[in-house]
Structure formats: structure tokens, C-alpha cells
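> forwarded from #structure-qc
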């Protein structure tokens, strides 16, 4: 690191041509032959002392500013310290809210499986997917949750570990690895109905359908806000008084989404979605 002495003025050297340049570079008129341009040794000492004093004061000021700086604030929403895999995320316009614990978790629905197209690729938690290991993908369970999965069609069961997110196909509750699907004897069929149970479950804990809301059912999305307002009027008249319009920019374009609601639990929202899907076939549930 250079010392303060390295910052003392360098003596000026007149160019041989006497053209008023420093170090031979044109355009830097720092020297002339008049007596007034010369500084006495005493004046050089004063100039040097003042320059050093100003430099020290500047360094002290920078140090004080650095010590007084505030630490960066965590991002809004209370998710600053949460792992990335536990934060809400959106896929195809639908927002999912991972739950903090799998204790007592139970769920029934359709299972599917995924294999060689994803083999060797990173999962949502950063692991490399190995289709020959007993793992699975789930939309909201914490990563590394251990699940007992039972095939309701043949009674077979297997224990798997959650290390990925999915499946994002309507009506499906879990994506099994090829090894898990083979253990359930569903690898040839592709899908089957299953029951999920977290290993070490405790009585009275929350199941998926009892997850607290609020929840909404999205029934439409428009670029034209007036069209969204018209649909909002219709759905409110149908009895969904707390329905709303939620706007969001996607790919540089603003969309106005109509949300029917609200619903206190996921089960209520799913029942409403089933009722509304007759008229709004692309309806789906979203979490607040």
C-alpha cells in the first residue's frame, strides 16, 4: 500500500523546447520562466504540509461514513430469511405457498412420474435428479420431507423423499421418480390414485385441504381493464362479493386478473373452482 509520502508533489520539469509543457506532454501549461512562477523551499513545505493534512482528513471522513452505513434491509413480505424453496412462487399464473412443516400431512389424489427427460438435471432444491432413487416432487411440502405413498389401486406403498417442485398439471398431487413409480407398480400405466402421509405424523395436524387462506379462484385475465371490470361485476352478482381484480406486468405487458373469492381454506376454494369450471374452464385456485 503506498505511503502518504507517495502523494507529495513531483517537481516539474521544463520541456527542452520551453513550450510550457510538463513531462513533455503538450497542453499542460504548468511552467514559465518568470520569477513569480517559482516557489521557494519554504512555500513548498507549507504546500506539502497542507496537502498531507487534507488527505488525512479525507481518509478519516471515508472511514466514518463506512462505519455509519446501515445494513441492507431484508426484502419486504417477511421472507428475507426463508430458504428459497420455502418462499411463495408462481407457475403458469398460479401462486403456491410452501408450508413450514409436514407434520401430520395427508393428501389423496393422482400421482404421476417423471424419468429420463429430467435425469441428470437440477431439481428445485439444487440436487441432481436421479430417476433411480426414491424421490418425488410436491408443490408445497418442505424439501426433504419423507412421505409414505400408497397406491390406492393395488395397496402397494413406498417411502420417498421430496426434493423437487411439481407436478403442475391440474388434479395431480405428486410426481414420483421412476424408482418410486416402479415400486408402486404404476410405471407402465403412468398415473394412479394415491394417498400421501408424512412419516412420523402426529394426530390433529393440518392436512392439505385444511390449509388456511385466504384463497381465490382465478376465472379470467385480460389486457383490457374494462373487460376485467365487466367480468368482476358478473361474478359479484353471482354471490362472490369479495371478488377482486389483481393487475400484474408479465413480459412488459399488464394483465388484469379476475379473482373470485374469498375462501377461508383450500378445500372451500377447490369446491368453488369445481362449481365455476363449468363456465370458466380454465379456472384455478390461487393463494393470497
Amino acid at each position: 500500500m503506498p505511503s502518504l509520502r507517495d502523494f507529495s508533489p513531483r517537481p516539474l520539469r521544463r520541456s527542452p523546447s520551453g513550450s510550457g509543457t510538463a513531462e513533455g506532454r503538450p497542453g499542460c501549461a504548468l511552467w514559465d520562466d518568470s520569477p513569480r512562477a517559482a516557489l521557494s523551499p519554504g512555500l513548498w513545505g507549507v504546500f506539502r504540509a497542507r496537502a498531507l493534512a487534507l488527505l488525512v482528513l479525507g481518509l478519516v471522513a471515508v472511514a466514518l461514513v463506512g462505519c455509519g452505513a446501515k445494513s441492507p434491509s431484508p426484502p419486504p413480505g417477511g421472507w428475507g430469511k426463508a430458504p428459497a424453496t420455502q418462499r411463495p412462487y408462481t407457475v403458469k399464473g398460479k401462486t403456491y405457498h410452501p408450508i413450514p412443516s409436514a407434520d401430520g400431512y395427508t393428501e389423496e389424489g393422482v400421482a404421476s412420474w417423471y424419468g429420463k427427460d429430467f435425469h441428470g438435471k437440477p431439481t428445485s432444491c439444487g440436487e441432481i435428479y436421479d430417476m433411480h432413487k426414491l424421490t418425488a416432487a410436491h408443490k408445497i411440502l418442505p424439501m426433504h420431507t419423507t412421505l409414505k405413498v400408497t397406491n390406492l389401486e393395488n395397496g402397494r406403498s413406498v417411502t420417498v423423499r421430496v426434493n423437487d417442485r411439481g407436478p403442475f398439471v391440474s388434479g395431480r398431487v405428486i410426481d414420483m421418480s421412476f424408482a418410486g413409480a416402479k415400486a408402486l407398480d404404476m410405471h407402465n400405466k403412468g398415473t394412479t390414485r394415491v394417498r400421501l402421509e408424512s412419516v412420523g405424523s402426529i394426530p390433529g395436524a393440518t392436512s392439505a385441504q385444511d390449509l388456511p387462506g385466504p384463497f381465490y379462484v382465478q376465472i379470467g385475465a385480460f389486457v383490457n381493464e374494462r373487460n376485467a371490470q365487466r367480468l368482476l361485476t358478473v361474478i359479484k352478482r353471482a354471490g362472490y362479493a369479495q371478488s377482486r381484480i389483481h393487475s400484474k406486468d408479465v413480459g412488459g405487458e399488464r394483465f388484469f386478473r379476475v379473482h373470485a373469492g374469498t375462501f377461508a381454506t383450500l378445500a372451500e376454494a377447490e369446491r368453488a373452482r369445481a362449481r365455476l369450471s363449468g363456465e370458466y374452464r380454465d379456472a384455478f385456485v390461487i393463494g393470497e
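QC bot note: The longest strand covers residues 253-265. The helical segments are 41-68, 178-183, 225-237, 266-276.
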